[in-house]
Amino acid sequence: MRNFLNLVPSVSQYFASRRDEKADRAIVFGCFGGQSIAQMLLCLAVVGAGVLHPSAVSAIAATPQAIAQTPANAPAPLTKLLTEIDAAANRRDVKAVMAFYSQNFTHSDGLNSQSMEKALTQLWQRYPNLNYRTELKSWKTEGNAIIADTVTTIAGTQKQDGRELNLKATIRSQQRFEGEKIVKQEILAEQNQITSGKNPPKLQVNVPEQVKVGEEYNFDAIVLEPIGNDILIGTILEEPVNEKTFFKSAEVDLDLLNSGGIFKVGKAPATPENRWISAVLMRQGGIAMVSVRLRVVK
């Protein structure tokens, strides 16, 4: 699999040679050094879910609430341990993170404890300086279980072949505790953006978080600044969210764009599932990729 960043010089030549012509071919590249878009996003979704420390479970479960509670009245052990798990992730301590999970836990993206540990290891090898910050949005007890909804922001850089990739991600997730382990995680929403270059396109993405099976939806990736005489190439890629796509690299074709962005009318599949909708845009000043999670429900 070719590293698409190695194609940047040829892309510049392509821009120069095609400035006054209509493109008759696409540029094909592999994403992020052999790591597919799905791979990158699933890695983020795994650790982006703000996890709680097992020692907090007994203290929190003693609170007799069955409805969602606000962060303002959250037990001190819960807020303290959310901070501690962020610190463990910021240290890139995979074993410490995995110690909080049941060996039999389930994840909405189809991971188990082994594949999750592999995902974290791969992500932190590529991005060794990621910074995590988790905010508690709500919490409740459900029998002997603890349910916590969180929003995690992730930021960091990766240097590759003298070029720098800048990553920003926001992930909303829910964790379920039973006994002293996390037994279930679900990713509720996420948006991730990766940029490279001195002047990458600045994007605004419009897409619903959730649609019904078979329903049409609009996906817009709009370049916010004027294009002028610049040449813009790009594409949209849609991938299912599951373990199979996570460990399989993808290729995409880039085509010459006739407008300041990418605009698509999509149709949700006939069965409920999660999908990533990604836009990749390039110009001579840089590259931008943005991906959002689309939840397809009945």
Task: Please tell me about this protein's structure.
The protein has 298 residues and is an alpha+beta fold. Helices cover 22% and strands 44% of the residues. The protein has seven helices and 14 strands. Strands 1, 2, 3, 4, 5, 6, 8, 10, 11, 13 and 14 form an eleven-stranded mixed beta sheet that branches. Helix 2 (37-48) crosses helix 6 (113-126). The longest helix is centred in the N-terminal third of the chain and has 15 residues, at 76-90. It is globular and about 60 Å long. Residues 1-43 and 49-61 have low confidence and may be disordered.
**Approximately how much beta-strand content do the residues carry?**
35-45%
Q: Can you give the mean pLDDT?
A: 76
**Structure classification:** alpha+beta
Low-confidence stretches: 1-43, 49-61
Terminal CA distance reads 37 Å
Rg over C-alpha atoms, rounded to the nearest angstrom? 21 Å
Helix content: 10-25%
Q: Major beta sheet, specifics?
A: 11 strands, mixed
The number of helical elements comes to 7
Task: Write down the secondary-structure element order.
Answer: HEHHHHEHEEEEEEEEHEEEE
Shape: globular
The tally of strands reads 14
Any key phrases for this structure?
single chain, 298 residues, alpha+beta, eleven-stranded mixed sheet, three-stranded antiparallel sheet, 22% helix, 44% strand, globular
Structure summary:
This protein has 298 residues and is α+β, with helices and mostly antiparallel strands.
Task: Write the topology of this structure.
Layout: H1 8-18, E1 27-30, H2 37-48, H3 57-61, H4 76-90, H5 94-98, E2 101-107, H6 113-126, E3 131-142, E4 145-160, E5 163-178, E6 181-196, E7 203-206, E8 210-212, E9 216-223, E10 233-240, H7 243-246, E11 251-256, E12 261-267, E13 273-283, E14 286-297
Parallel strand pairs: 2-6, 8-14
Antiparallel strand pairs: 1-11, 3-4, 4-5, 5-6, 6-14, 7-9, 9-12, 10-11, 10-13, 13-14
Helix pairs in contact: 2-6
